[in-house]
Amino acid sequence: LEEIPRPVQDSGNILKQGYLEKRSREPSFFGSEWHKRWCVLTQRNFLYYANEKSKQPKGSFPIERYQARLDPQLRKDSRKKCCFQLLCPGKRSYEFTAPSPAEAQDWVEQIRFLLRDLSSLTIPCDEEEEEEEEEEEELSKDRDSSDSMNNSQNSTLNPEEPELEGEDIYEVMPGELPNSQ
User: Fold this and answer.
1) What is the Cα–Cα distance from 43 to 116, expressed in whole angstroms?
2) Which residues are bridge partners to 96 per DSSP?
3) Where are the alpha helices (DSSP H) in 67-169?
4) How far is residue 77's CA from residue 54's CA, in Å, rounded to a whole number?
5) C-alpha–C-alpha distance, residues 77 and 34, integer Å
6) What are phi and psi of 117, to 5 degrees?
7) Pairing state between β 14-23 and 34-42
8) Which stretches of sequence are listed as region Disordered (predicted)?
């Protein structure tokens, strides 16, 4: 079975995805229009696509300062209990209709959980720098542990053989002799 390629670059960070109806920003002659969109919530962004096979999002925004709430006032039909809003002061608000009231509740809960998680970060720092530092630490730990394992294995493999390489481990560079200063 061939896996369907996901349209999101950071697909490893997808927290929730599925079809929602999104209210268009510009109302048409007949009033507000709702369009079916494939929506994806990642650890940092909310993205929406024409469908789940689309490679480019029709829109996206950082979720960080938004609030999510159920809002039955958005529709007047039988699906009013399936509606929720994403609001952020000074930014565009987004209105969605889920397939069911339970699904709308789940989207709101997932977004609120993520927002609590994002707001609990106490030390703001650049994510890429933090990842690079963690990778460097892991690499140095790996080198340290493999070096000590290699050294202990070398000395215990053949205990009766004299250690010939012991003094030639480090190469002395010209001008770096300890007594030359």
Assistant:
1) 12
2) 22, 84
3) 101-119, 127-157
4) 29
5) 13
6) -65, -45
7) antiparallel
8) 124-181
Q: How many CB atoms lie within 10 A of CB 20?
A: 24
Cα Rg for the chain, rounded, in angstroms?
28
Question: In which residue are the tokens 């229009």 written?
Answer: 33
Tokens linked to 70 = 């159920």
pLDDT digits (tens, 9 = 90+) for 37-62: 999 999 999 999 999 999 999 999 99
CATH no. of 14-121 = 2.30.29.30
In this structure, are residues 40 and 111 in contact, taking their beta carbons and an 8 Å threshold?
A: no
Residue pair 15/43 in contact (Cβ under 8 Å)? The answer is: yes
Question: Domain coordinates of the chain in residue numbers?
Answer: 14-121
Amino acid at 121: L
**pLDDT tens digit string along 145-161?**
555 455 544 444 544 54
Please compute the mean of the pLDDT values over residues 105-120 and round it to a whole number: 92
Residue type, 120: S
For residue 28, the 8-state DSSP code is B
